[in-house]
Design goal:
Helix content is 91%, strand content 0%. It is mainly alpha-helical. It has one domain (37-219). The longest helix is centred in the middle third of the chain and has 48 residues, at 127-174. The model is unreliable at 11-33 and 226-230 (pLDDT under 50).
């Protein structure tokens, strides 16, 4: 009887040992179940950076518009137009600072994610999986370096333009006269032309960040956004149909 119990116990251990090992493997390192969350953190920070770059682009567009309005349109009072230009330049300064912070946060999140890749590499068993892992990591690093280069390039074109716009602001603040505005018109038109080129670069950078964010996320937030927009549009259409029906019905009842 005792021998039978020992035999059954042995069979139980042998039969369920693989399951126990599998369960232990799933629960052992906490970072196995949370590793993808670091990629989601990278995706989120990259998406935030894309949004901040887009805001920066819009603020630059406002600067170009207010400057063009100031120097190219005749006005009885130049002061409101200069005030608008002055405020637009200040907003551009603030948006540049926010982009700087967003890019820094994105880089920190990416560094933490790369550390997670290195931690998981130790646990891989086969050479082919390690090779795939290395290739994927290299692709992510290449994209990160490409983003960093694009960021530096946009700054190298934006900051000189910002200094140029600042010079124009100083000139106008001391010579806000009809003659003074007419005298800087060619300078302002040159700044506007260069600003449009910078806007193109910023737009391309924002698109690159948006695509990188989608690639690094565990869910396709672009489709989710599109679905939400479709549902909102569908809801609006239904409300319009209902409103039309109510108006038609009420109109007939009134008659």
């Amino acid at each position: 009887m005792q021998t039978s119990k020992s035999f059954i116990r042995t069979l139980f251990v042998v039969a369920f040992a693989p399951l126990a090992l599998w369960l232990a493997g799933c629960a052992a390192p906490a970072h196995r179940s949370t590793a993808y969350q670091k990629s989601d953190a990278v995706a989120h920070s990259t998406r935030v950076a894309a949004r901040e770059v887009q805001i920066e682009l819009n603020d630059l567009d406002a600067v170009m518009a207010t400057l063009g309005h100031l120097v190219n349109d005749t006005a009885t009072d130049l002061r409101p137009r200069f005030a608008a230009y002055n405020q637009a330049v200040d907003r551009l300064y603030r948006s540049i600072e926010r982009v700087e912070l967003a890019i820094t946060r994105m880089q920190k999140k990416n560094a933490a994610y790369m550390e997670e890749w290195d931690r998981h590499a130790v646990a891989m068993n086969y050479g082919i999986t390690r090779e795939h892992r290395d290739a994927r990591k290299k692709a992510i690093q290449n994209e990160t370096r490409s983003i960093s280069r694009r960021y530096v390039e946009t700054r190298e074109t934006l900051l000189p333009l910002l200094a140029y716009l600042e010079d124009l602001r100083k000139m106008l603040s001391t010579d806000l006269t009809v003659g003074g505005v007419e005298g800087i018109k060619n300078l302002a038109d040159n700044a506007i032309e260069n600003g449009r080129k910078v806007q193109t670069a910023l737009g391309q950078f924002s698109d690159q960040l948006t695509d990188a964010s989608r690639q690094m996320s565990s869910f396709d937030w672009t489709r989710q956004t599109a679905t939400a927009q479709f549902r909102e549009s569908e809801g609006q259409s239904k409300r319009m149909v209902m409103t039309k029906w109510i108006r038609t019905t009420v109109f007939r009842m009134d008659r």
